[in-house]
């Protein structure tokens, strides 16, 4: 409770009433029982409200002419002063006494009123100071609670900002990883296209749609699909990153405003009546149109935090989705690459086998061609040797036809010679037919040799393309780790 202290009196100021010495009245005041009133107050025989006058004031003597009449200057008597050459008297003794009584009564009334007003003012001061102290304490406590609430939300925003900063950094790392994966993806795409382009340079008979070509086309299709997915994911990440930065900026603005508000309320909480930095601010009680309500204040911060949680959840989902996409893409690409390499190895092995088989067949054909040529020569010699036997038998027959008359008979030797001629003709015809077959076989063997040599000649470049170029390119195919962006 405030204490009422009398301020120190200045040298030029009047002496305080409370500090003046009390003077003792030697006469009884009005209203107290006494034998006679004091001489300066109306007497019992006087003219007043309590004691009426015995007679009205008249002229002093016959020489003082004065007309008794009512006038404004006569006060309570209602008489006009009697003025002559000897006196300027305006009031009577009773009027003087009555005036003294009125002055004393008015003074006592004023003093009583001042005492009442002083007691009321003291009570008012005590009550006002108590109310002011309680109101100030309540306001200070409310400011402390408000500052605590602001600090709690500010700390929550600070944690959210730190968490969002970490999420932005993690998403940025994932974005760089995705871009690295896209950069690495150009290598398998170039390898697959190069392999297909190189395989178009195979000889005409080797231009077949084999298993390696199908696997390479499937690999190019898979790379195109993965590339489209990664590009779309990259666009989603960049959009999410923009949303994350916008939410972080909003939280930073809100945090900075709450920091200013917390510092302002902290200053207000420390203000006291003895503070030296307080001033009158006449317009401080006017509420600005831009002021928000406490409900909207908390709602705005909660909406910002809810936006942060939603944005962070989407960002985490996107990062997890990106991990799954990159892992699955690397696995699929590596699996397809293994399939292509197995198909190439199988195709190369098959072509090696067919080449070796063709070389073996070529050697067999060449051997058979040589043997056929030798046999043809033998048949020609044999056919030529049959001419000698034919000449012998024909000579014999011709000689026997020179026999005379009856001796020229168809005897047994004649029949045998004729049979021999037929047998020689049949044998010669058979050997000629066999010679013709041998020559046909020789020509067929020559054709087979030419075909085998051509196939081997065409097979070697195809094997060189798949083994020396495609497999060499496939050896530079990125690993799963590199395809994942690491």
TrEMBL record:
Residue ranges that the Swiss-Prot or TrEMBL entry lists as coiled coil: 150-181, 355-382
Pfam family, one: Tektin
Keyword annotations from UniProtKB, A to Z: Cell projection, Cilium, Coiled coil, Cytoplasm, Flagellum
One GO CC term, this protein: axoneme
Gene Ontology BP annotations: cilium assembly; cilium movement involved in cell motility
Cellular location(s): Cytoplasm, Cytoskeleton, Cilium axoneme
InterPro entries listed in its UniProt record: Tektin-like, Tektins
Family statement: Belongs to the tektin family.
Protein name as catalogued: Tektin
Organism annotation: Anopheles epiroticus
Lineage: Eukaryota, Metazoa, Ecdysozoa, Arthropoda, Hexapoda
């Amino acid at each position: 409770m405030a204490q009422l202290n009398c301020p120190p009196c200045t040298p030029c100021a009047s002496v305080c009433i409370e500090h003046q010495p009390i003077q003792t009245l030697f006469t009884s005041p009005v209203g107290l029982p006494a034998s006679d009133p004091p001489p300066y107050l109306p007497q019992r025989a006087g003219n007043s409200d309590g004691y009426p006058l015995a007679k009205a004031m008249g002229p002093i003597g016959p020489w003082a002419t004065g007309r008794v009449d009512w006038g404004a200057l006569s006060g309570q008597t209602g008489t006009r002063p009697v003025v002559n050459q000897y006196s300027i008297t305006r009031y009577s003794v009773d009027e003087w006494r009555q005036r003294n009584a009125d002055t004393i009564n008015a003074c006592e009334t004023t003093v009583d009123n001042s005492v009442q007003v002083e007691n009321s003012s003291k009570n008012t001061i005590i009550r006002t100071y108590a109310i002011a102290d309680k109101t100030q304490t309540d306001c200070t406590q409310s400011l402390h609670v408000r500052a605590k609430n602001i600090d709690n939300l500010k700390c929550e925003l600070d944690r959210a900002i730190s968490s969002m900063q970490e999420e932005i950094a993690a998403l940025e790392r994932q974005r760089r990883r995705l871009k690295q994966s896209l950069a690495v993806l150009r290598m398998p795409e170039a390898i697959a296209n190069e392999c297909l382009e190189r395989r178009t340079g195979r000889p005409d008979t080797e231009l077949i749609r084999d298993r390696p070509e199908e696997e390479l086309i499937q690999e190019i299709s898979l790379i195109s699909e993965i590339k489209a997915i990664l590009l779309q994911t990259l666009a989603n990440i960049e959009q999410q990153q923009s949303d994350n930065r916008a939410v972080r900026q909003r939280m930073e603005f809100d945090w900075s405003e709450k920091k200013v508000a917390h510092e302002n309320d902290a200053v207000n909480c420390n203000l006291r009546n003895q503070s030296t930095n307080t001033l009158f601010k006449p317009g401080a009680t006017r509420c600005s149109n831009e002021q928000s309500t406490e409900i909207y204040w908390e709602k705005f911060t909660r909406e910002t935090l809810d936006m942060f949680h939603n944005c962070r959840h989407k960002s985490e989902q996107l990062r997890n989705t990106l991990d799954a996409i990159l892992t699955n893409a690397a696995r699929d690409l590596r699996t397809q690459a293994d399939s292509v390499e197995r198909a190439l190895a199988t195709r190369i092995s098959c072509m090696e086998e067919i080449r070796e088989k063709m070389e073996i067949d070529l050697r067999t054909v060449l051997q058979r061609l040589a043997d056929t040529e030798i046999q043809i020569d033998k048949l020609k010699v044999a056919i030529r040797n049959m001419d000698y036997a034919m000449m012998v038998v024909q000579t014999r027959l011709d000689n026997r036809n020179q026999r005379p008359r009856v001796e020229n008979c168809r005897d047994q030797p004649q029949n045998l010679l004729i049979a021999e001629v037929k047998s020689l003709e049949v044998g010669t015809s058979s050997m000629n037919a066999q010679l013709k077959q041998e020559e046909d076989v020789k020509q067929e063997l020559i054709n087979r040799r030419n075909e085998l040599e051509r196939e081997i000649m065409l097979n070697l470049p195809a094997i060189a393309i798949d083994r020396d170029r495609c497999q060499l390119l496939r050896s530079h195919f990125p690993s799963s780790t590199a395809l994942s962006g690491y």
